[in-house]
Amino acid sequence: MKLSDRLVGLISIIGSAYLVSLIWDTPLETKGLPLGCLFLLMILSVMLITRPVTTIYTFDNFKLIILNFILLFVYIVLLNFLGFIPASIIYLTTFIFMNKYEGKKWVGLAYGIFLPIALYAVFELLFAVDLPQGIF
Fold this sequence. Notes:
By secondary structure, the chain is mainly alpha-helical. It contains 5 helices and no strands.
């Protein structure tokens, strides 16, 4: 086990415990999700501390990671101009094919088109959350 993994795990446990103590007295409706996430982070931190070292991870595809971040920033900019559905279709379809989707091409394309439409329907129509409409 690397010392840095143990240190990150320990810091995560301490930070999560501190945040749990801050939100403990709030109503259940407002603390349910944050508490769940913090307890999950604590469990994963314990797993990080106690796991044996079996694999050393390297960044062989550093260029692809940088390209994904650039694509994310372009998506954020396009979101304000084009709106949620067109920007999300462009982003997701580009992301799928840029990361070398190994399935059939039409499945990746369908996923890139229909997922943003389904998310729009859920959030805009069911939850009544206003998503960016764009300038058009």
